[in-house]
């Protein structure tokens, strides 16, 4: 597999009502092909979201957008461009970070969560110095994170729920 210079191919997902930003690291090959977040069929992101919000599992991109926006979430990635081999986070180098200032300025974002270790490291290194908003690292929903069962991921990810819903 070759290492390629890749630029993030699709825009962030948010609206003016978003108060919680979820940051990934960089889209996988499958996500880049689908031109949308968490496009690998084995990534558990959409299963986790639908479980914690007690919604039907979204299948289409429109249904995925709806679950995100209806729950005042925003999705984006920490990396704008990089050298990467396939979808391997460990191969990522020569990082150019994404600028999240547009999202912050045009929404109500006051909470940031990072989907996995690389996202958290990239946020801390490149983005936190400009936002000053602390981020919480969540376990990755990637199929590469085999140490977490779906139930365990759901339990950990419940922290993104708005305060009144966390009781569930």
List keywords for this structure.
168 residues, alpha/beta, Uracil-DNA Glycosylase, subunit E, four-stranded parallel sheet, three-stranded antiparallel sheet, 6 helices, 21% strand
| Percent in strands | 15-25%
Number of strands: 7
Q: Give the low-confidence spans.
A: none
- End-to-end CA span: 45 Å
Helix content: 25-40%
CATH class: Alpha Beta
Total discrete domains? 1
CATH homologous superfamily, by name?
A: Uracil-DNA glycosylase-like domain
- State the major sheet: 4 strands, parallel
Report the total helices. 6
Order the strands across the largest sheet as they lie in space.
3-2-6-7
Radius of gyration over C-alpha positions, nearest whole angstrom = 15 Å
- In one word, what is the shape? globular
- The overall pLDDT, averaged over residues, is 94
Describe the model.
The chain is of the alpha/beta class and 168 residues long. Helices cover 31% and strands 21% of the residues. The chain is built from six helices and seven strands. α2 packs across α6 (150-157). The mean pLDDT is 94.
